[in-house]
TrEMBL record:
Gene3D superfamilies: NADH Oxidase. InterPro entries: Bacteriocin_Proc_Enz, Nitroreductase, Nitroreductase-like, SagB-type_dehydrogenase. Residues 64-242 form the Nitroreductase domain. It holds the Pfam family Nitroreductase. It comes from the Bacteria. This is Nitroreductase domain-containing protein. It comes from Dissulfuribacter thermophilus. GO terms for molecular function: oxidoreductase activity.
């Protein structure tokens, strides 16, 4: 496969493979760590619902029925359901020393993934861009307005995003993971994001909502939209959520 071997992806995989003979000789890049949480302290807050009594689901059925769904009705979802989705994807479930353990696993418990939300059809939440404050279990308002058209355009024109109730956007603060794991840490960052998205997919299915992962987007446009630099923090994954028939 000569073509594959010429790609930077192949070189990256080769360069970051653990090898018994060289594991302890490898020079790891010296990358300073970053703060474990991002907060927009002065932002207007939207409190999330901490209780969801009576909502339960059969895990085996949810696994059997989960699909990527793109046919949203444009009806609103409730703030209670949004709260469950945020908790299911990145809720704090335990504390171990300085680590706030979550619903999804993370390499080294370093949690480099930040969650942003474009809400357009969520009861009790004004249309806008929000950041999810994991520790405080609340949303921080970054800008108000209807942005799903912009998100659709940024995601290579994928039209179903316009009909969603909200879109989750996941970024990575790369230093959090790469300061410990060096170049190999990048692999872990994408694995972390996959776990988070699958939790969202399963929770959406359990709530009879439709969800679809999206990895095709113009990177710098999305970073600009979020107000992040694409170096220290960069967008890596999205998922649409909406009501379905
Ligand atoms: C990493 C990743 C990226 C994806 N990106 C997109 C995307 O940009 N647009 C889209 O419509 N679906 C996207 N999907 C959804 C896949 O098309 C879908 O998972 C696949 O067709 C299998 O169908 P299922 O999820 O219903 O089992 C993505 C899925 C993954 C895991």
């Amino acid at each position: 496969m000569p073509d594959l071997k010429k790609t930077i992806a192949y070189l990256y995989m080769e360069e970051t493979k653990f090898d018994r003979d060289t594991l302890y000789e490898r020079v790891r890049p010296n990358i300073l760590p970053a703060e474990p949480f991002k907060r927009y302290k002065d932002a207007e807050k939207v409190l999330l619902a901490r209780r969801w009594d009576g909502k339960s689901a059969d895990l085996w059925k949810v696994l059997q029925e989960r699909r990527s769904r793109r046919n949203y009705t444009r009806a609103a979802i409730s703030l209670g359901d949004l709260s469950i989705l945020l908790w299911a994807s990145q809720g704090v479930t335990a504390q171990a020393g300085p680590y706030y353990l979550r619903t999804a696993p993370s390499a080294g418990a370093l949690y480099s993934i930040e969650t942003y939300l474009v809400a357009e059809r969520v009861e009790g939440v004004k249309p806008g861009l929000y950041h999810y404050d994991v520790k405080g279990f609340q949303l921080e308002t970054l800008k108000k307005g209807e942005f799903l058209n912009d998100i659709s355009r940024i995601a290579l024109g994928q039209g179903f995003l316009r009909d969603a109730a909200c879109v989750f956007i996941w970024t990575s603060v790369l230093r959090r993971t790469m300061s410990k794991y060096g170049n190999r840490g990048l692999r872990y960052i994408f694995l972390d994001a996959g776990h988070i998205c699958q939790n969202l997919m399963l929770a959406s299915e359990a709530l009879d909502l439709g969800a679809c992962p999206v990895a095709a987007f113009f990177d710098m446009e999305l970073n600009e939209f979020l107000g992040i630099d694409g170096i220290e923090e960069t967008a890596i994954y999205l998922a649409a959520v909406g009501r379905i028939e």
